[in-house]
Amino acid sequence: MKSEKGITLVTLVITIVLMFILTFTISVNIKPYEEQRVKTDFEQDIQNLTEEISQLYARTKWVPFLNPYTNTSMLEGIKNVNDNENYYVIDISYLDVTLNYGADFEKIKTKPATEKITDLLDVYIINEQSHTIYYPKGVTYGGRTYYCLPEVYSEIR
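^ thats the sequence. predicted structure below, dont judge the formating
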């Protein structure tokens, strides 16, 4: 009999099992870093929007927004104390920003300006009075969901 060279079935199974264990271990260990990246991207978006809107408002006394946004129940308890009841979708087409989130803005651009938005969450909204920016979809990090930057608001009278 001549001896055959090649990979045995046992070697192949052991290799597949080891690859599965490595893949599982890596995916479990990467999850916290992925959550951190999502939160960092979200914070960067809001900081960029805040800076751009502040500069535009300083020059023009105008804030670029579109449709009224009425689904604000997720903001209860975290709203800026200076917010009034009027929230609007930010019209990012007037701003020089690149955002990581906010894909539903493309859907809103085609709606009439008077149509109230209640069903889209992946947008950035702004309060008419305080100019505080919120992200209704929120991002989860460490078991907590964030809708805006964690800030302490003082009431302005």
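The CA atoms of residues 31 and 101 lie 19 Å apart.
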